[in-house]
Each structure stands twice: as C-alpha cells, then as structure tokens.
Design a protein that fits this description.
202 residues; alpha+beta; three-stranded antiparallel β-sheet; elongated; four-stranded mixed β-sheet; 9 strands; 2 domains
C-alpha cells in the first residue's frame, strides 16, 4: 500500500512548517505556496522527496490524501481549476455518451475539458486532459447536452457512425423537446444544427 514517506525522508524547519499548512487532497500552484515560505523551491523539492507533495506538472502540486487503500489521486475538478486558474469549465469522459441510449458502447481513457482559456492535450500527474475552448457549455452534464455533443464529435468516436445517427433519429421523441432544442441551439455545431432541422422537417 502506498503511503506518504515521512519516516525515511522527514522534513524539518521551513519545509516542515509549510507541510503543516497543506490540506490533504488539495491541489496547489507554486505561487500559492510561495506566499507561505521564503524558500519555496527548496522546500517544494524537500516535500516532493518526502512524499508530502506530488508534482503534477510544472508549478502544479498535489497534497495526497491517505485512505485505507493507499494514496488517493487528486479530484479532476481540483486539478483543472488550479491549472486554468478558473472555475468555469466542464470535465467529462466521452464514455458518458454511452448513457444516452444511442447504442454506443466504447470506453475512452481520456478526459475532455471544455473551457474558455486553454486548448490542447496536457499531462497533469499521470493523466491526460484534452482541453478544448468552447464558446458555451453547461455547468453539468445532461442527457440533452450529451446527445448534442455526441453528434458534434461523432467523427472522433470509435463507433459505427451510420448506426449511431439512425438510433439518434429514432430516439428524438424520447427527449424533452424543449430541452433538446435548447441544447442544439446553445451547444450544437453547424452540422449538428442542420441535421437536427432535417430530422424535424422529415
């Protein structure tokens, strides 16, 4: 079982005082910790060596929380919030599309982050996050948003596209029409909006 290694590499002095101010489970930026010590880089090296902190990326650290099964990884939301310096984002896995009932079954080992600031794939800790700048996104997932976003990203999915589109057309009536139309208007790509209009007119 993984544990925080404080026995073999204990920290003393300023590093120990800094460690005493860390909250297990929290994610910190270097500048956050620089306010708490006058030798931040030396103390960060000592805390990482002792296991009190885990380095996620340049300037980004996690204070691990101990559980009965070992060290808990940081929550995705905390990692992304610290990385972006922003709370306005949506984190989810494309595997969530499988909950909409369109016959998708693939599981994806990646995490999407819709946001207004960063674009690209970044490794934070041992995880990869696919950051995508979007003009609009909801605060939380809904069946209607997932339906629309699945259609937006259909070309990226390892599914039979024609079968998914057929099932999506068939399932239209199972959604709340007002919510679905609003989701298409707010979050749909031009191609998704066009396809949706064709289905309604057909």
């Amino acid at each position: 079982m993984a544990t925080i290694n404080t026995a073999t590499e204990s920290v003393k002095g300023g590093a120990s005082r800094l460690a005493g101010q860390l909250k297990p489970g929290r994610v910190y930026r270097r500048e956050d910790l620089a306010r708490l010590t006058t030798a931040v880089d030396r103390h960060l090296r000592q805390l990482v060596a002792s296991g009190r902190l885990k380095k996620l990326a340049q300037g980004l650290y996690h204070s691990p929380k101990q559980s009965a099964f070992g060290l808990l990884p940081p929550a995705d939301g905390l990692v992304v919030e610290s990385f972006l310096r922003d709370k306005d984002f949506l984190v989810f896995s494309p595997s969530a599309y499988n909950t909409v009932g369109l016959g998708t079954t693939q599981l994806y080992n990646r995490t999407l982050v819709y946001n207004h600031k960063r674009h690209g794939v970044f490794t934070l800790g041992n995880r990869q996050f696919d950051f995508r700048i979007k003009p609009r996104f909801p605060k939380k997932l809904s069946p209607e948003f997932l339906f629309v976003d699945l259609l937006n990203n259909l070309d990226e999915l390892a599914e039979d596209h024609d079968a998914v589109l057929h099932q999506a057309h068939v399932k239209l009536s199972s959604f709340d029409s007002t919510r679905l139309e609003r989701a298409v208007e707010n979050y749909g790509s031009m191609a998704t909006r066009k396809r949706f209009r064709e289905w309604l007119d057909g």
